[in-house]
TrEMBL record:
GO terms for cellular component: nucleus. Residues 204-217 have a biased composition (Polar residues). GO terms for molecular function: DNA binding. Residues 1-22, 168-217 are annotated as: Disordered. The keyword Disulfide bond does not apply. This is Transcription factor MYB2. It comes from the Eukaryota. Its main location: nucleus. The keyword DNA-binding applies. SMART domains: SANT.
DNA sequence: AACACGGTCAACCGCCGGAGC
DNA sequence: AGCTCCGGCGGTTGACCGTGT
């Protein structure tokens, strides 16, 4: 904000006072796209210097990754993507870039924004902390199964299979020593709206599952706990009354439940 | 019409770790 | 070993826009 000019971590080149900040212009975008097409998307400081853009390398990198990259996907987060975000966040927490690797074309920034503006809003509405076990369980036990139902309701059988493979879950965090190898290749030079390709969660880790596979039918008829889905009645609020108690108060008022139904 | 408010999202920041010298 | 540079990450900010009063 205020003291942009002198960052003690940065070398104090005399051009520092000349560095541009703020929104990018179309002209800057065009210059950056041109340079990246020639030099590749690495060596950002070199690109920033030699392109004549009065931007930092970091700023160039961010602009490219979040906006100019040809395979960046725009538009609303789909139900399937919502499911993936909830699922992967339950595994990894705020590892946005890692989560983004499994949502082709989506950026870590976009997922982070989605989480903060949509998911945290739900927590706020329920007056519980987004990082609380209560909220996490609510996501797993209520919202994710609901999402699957909605995905099924709107989908072809092929997509149902996709969803089923999505929730075939190792139940374990990814081995940090095992670099992520998303099962898709970037779709360069195809402007968005390519067929969405999800990476089955079963492929997330080479060190696979200790827990039983979770199938779509499991989800439809049950709730997830730490070790798998448990059967639960599907008919209504009354069935949920063991899930959302804070200090003896059941957070699942009719109002909040239907509010959430509308949101997801 | 003007203002307040809340949601969204692009772009920034500081921090950290790896590479190279 | 220690330093510098750079890229990547997660957290935060603020401009913008739509909606309500």
């Amino acid at each position: 904000m205020e003291d942009y000019e002198r960052n003690s971590n940065s070398p104090s080149h005399e051009e520092d006072s000349d560095v541009r900040k703020g929104p990018w212009t179309e002209e800057e975008d065009a210059i950056l796209v041109n340079f990246v097409s020639i030099h590749g998307d690495a060596r950002w400081n070199h690109i920033a210097r030699s392109s004549g853009l009065r931007r930092t390398g970091k700023s160039c990198r961010l602009r490219w990754l979040n906006y100019l990259r040809p395979d960046v996907r725009r538009g609303n987060i789909t139900l399937e993507e919502q499911f993936m975000i909830l699922k992967l966040h339950s595994l990894w927490g705020n590892r946005w870039s890692k989560i983004a690797q499994y949502l082709p074309g989506r950026t870590d920034n976009e997922i982070k924004n989605y989480w903060r503006t949509r998911v945290q809003k739900q927590a706020k509405h329920l007056r519980c902390d987004v990082n609380s076990n209560l909220f996490k369980e609510t996501m797993r036990n209520v919202w994710m199964p609901r999402l699957v139902e909605r995905i099924n309701a709107q989908s072809s059988s092929a997509t149902c299979e996709q969803v089923e493979s999505m929730i075939t879950d190792p139940g374990q965090p990814i081995d940090e020593s095992n670099p992520v190898e998303p099962g898709f290749a970037p779709h360069h030079h195809h402007h968005q709206q390519q067929q969405q390709q999800f990476v089955p969660v079963s492929e997330l880790s080479a060190t696979s599952s200790n827990s039983p596979a979770e199938t779509l039918s499991d989800v439809q008829g049950g709730v997830v706990n730490g070790s798998g889905y448990e059967p639960v009645g599907q008919t209504g609020l009354g069935e949920f009354n063991d899930w959302g108690c804070v200090g003896g108060d059941n957070m699942w008022t009719d109002e909040s439940f239907w509010f959430l139904q509308d949101q997801f």
